[in-house]
Amino acid sequence: MNRDLSLLQPYPFEKLAKLLGGLKPPQEMEHISLGIGEPKHPAPECVTKVLNETVDLVANYPTTKGSAELRDTIAAWATRRFKLKSDSLTGEQNVLPVMGTREAIFAFTQCAVDRKPGALVLSPDPFYQIYEGAAYLAGAEPYFLPTLAENGFIPDYDSITDDIWERCELLFICSPNNPSGSVHSAETIKKLIALADKFNFILASDECYSEIYFDEANPPVGLLEVCAQLGRHDYKNCVVFHSLSKRSNLPGLRSGFIAGDAALIKPFLLFRTYHGCAMPLQVQKGSIAAWNDEIHVQDNREQYRQKFAAVLEILAPVMDVKMPDASFYLWAKTPIDDDAFTAGLFEQQNLTVLPGRYLSRETDAGLYPGAGYVRMALVATVEECVEAAWRIRRYIESL
Residues 81-119: pLDDT tens digits? Predict the structure, then answer.
């Protein structure tokens, strides 16, 4: 077996299950989970209708590249959303459909990393654990960039030395960020593009929360959008990952895309041809319907606005927690250790959150950037989120 498999840590939810395994919550309370970022809003009817109508397509093999209709639909959506130059992002050269961003991020890392001694994959800390596992199994070393409150939960890119940039093969940014909900500014992204040019690394932006924001007039800026602002209409060294899981409440559809530099997309298509992840034809048809409809996405955002407003009003008097820039997460500071807080909350209130340390790794200075925080996913109904907030408040007041 691949010896690098031994470098992989248990997934955060395995650690959470172990933490809570021996505890007995009050059975008179119905369990509420804010631990997993699985959207619970209804799937859009425009998608489920198409899926039902195209079920017979299971009789046909899909191609790795996906249909031209799907790729063109995605290219048109991204061009509208991120104000790209017309025809600079084409379905033929710049877009590939993928089976969700997790699969694509992992696979792209295997394709992108040159297995040379000292190769690094840089990513934020706390982080989406796929960045770490993908780096190890691509023969690289993960290098974590702490995201701290004093820097708005954005990595301090200015503190990274040239010798680290020289070893960097791939830099992941997650904007909007999981877990903090912070958003990179256009100026910060411009700085990273310049660094990618100078040190010849790939800049990969995980943007799967980009459509969950709170000011309709100011959606989060994207990497390709900043490229367009700079006149970089070839998107050199840059790729983005998007998904329907959060945007359209379709986590089980496993549908997303990678887009950007055609010189990176072409070899990735070759890799995927061997990798064997072709999107089923009926899923492609449903995805086309989803990317063509914004009404359900706007309704989605309105539901999250209601939940954040209600929950923050309840928690603000007792907890250090603020409205995120985007995403459906609350990244809340805990009055005691985050794992002890999580265990006590479950045991007393039958409510699950995720300890921040489970999303984090220790820095050279002995710091866990995620320690002392919990991630709360406001994915349940408004009523359940309000009930959860009151349970958290009662628990904190009991400490």
Answer: 999 999 999 999 999 999 999 999 999 999 999 999 999
3-42+296-398 CATH fold: Aspartate Aminotransferase, domain 1 (3.90.1150)
pLDDT of residue 148 exceeding 80: yes
Residue 121's identity, in one-letter code, is V
Burial classification of residue 347, based on how many CB atoms lie within 10 Å of its CB (0-12 exposed, 13-18 middle, 19 or more buried): middle
Which SS3 state, helix, strand or coil, does residue 331 take?
strand
Q: How far is residue 31's CA from residue 210's CA, in Å, rounded to a whole number? A: 29
Could you tell me which residues come within 8 angstroms of residue 397 by beta carbon, excluding any fewer than 6 positions away?
Answer: 318
pLDDT at residue 52 is higher than 80: yes
What is the CATH code of the structural domain delimited by 46-293? 3.40.640.10
Contact, 186 vs 230, CB < 8 A?
A: no
Tell me the two tokens of residue 139: 């023969």
Write the single-letter amino acid at 283.
V
283 pLDDT tier (thresholds 50, 70, 90): very high
Cross-sheet strand order for the sheet of 373-377: 329-333, 373-377, 354-355
User: For residues 388 and 398, what is the distance between their CA atoms, to the nearest angstrom?
Assistant: 15
Q: How confident is the model at residue 186 (pLDDT cuts 50, 70, 90)?
A: very high
pTM, to two decimals = 0.96
Residue position matching structure tokens 């990969």: 204
